[in-house]
Amino acid sequence: MKRPAACRDLKDVRTAVNALDRDLIKLLARRQQYALAALRFKRDRKEVGDPEHRHAMFVQRKTWAESAKVNPRMTQKIFQAIVDESKRLHLAGLRARKR
């Protein structure tokens, strides 16, 4: 993959972005595996979505974003979607256990 400054045209840029997006999808799949692994340690709905843990996580992600010079608001929105999906998976897993 070319560095941004080495891209000669829009096609080069799009090729690089597509490769990065593919890598992001692979990372999201790995993260989802950990979210599902966490379900093994949760017994009921009360253990899904710990507000203190969530707050600390978002503070840390904001710090990481700022250090990487990435828009913290965008990062917060992305991680909110990831956390919401993890919570949905946990709740679905708990419901499936009850059957």
Can you describe what's shown?
The protein is elongated and about 55 Å long. It has helices spanning 10-39, 51-67, 72-98. It starts with 9 loop residues before the first helix and ends with a helix. Helix content is 75%, strand content 0%. Helix 1 (10-39) runs parallel beside helix 3 and helix 2 (51-67) packs antiparallel against helix 3. The chain is built from three helices and no strands. The chain has one domain: Chorismate Mutase Domain, subunit A. With 99 residues, it is mainly alpha-helical.
Helices and strands in order, then pairings?
Layout: H1 10-39, H2 51-67, H3 72-98
Helix pairs in contact: 1-3, 2-3
Q: Give the termini distance in whole angstroms.
A: 48 Å
**Which geometry do the CA atoms define?**
elongated
| Radius of gyration, whole Å | 17 Å
Quaternary state of the chains: single chain
Number of strands: 0
CATH arch. level architecture: Up-down Bundle
The share of residues in helices is over 70%
Could you name the CATH topology? Chorismate Mutase Domain, subunit A
The secondary structure category is mainly alpha
Order of helices and strands: HHH
CATH superfamily: Chorismate mutase
Name of the top-level CATH class: Mainly Alpha
Query: How many alpha or pi helices?
Result: 3
- Detail the poorly predicted runs: none
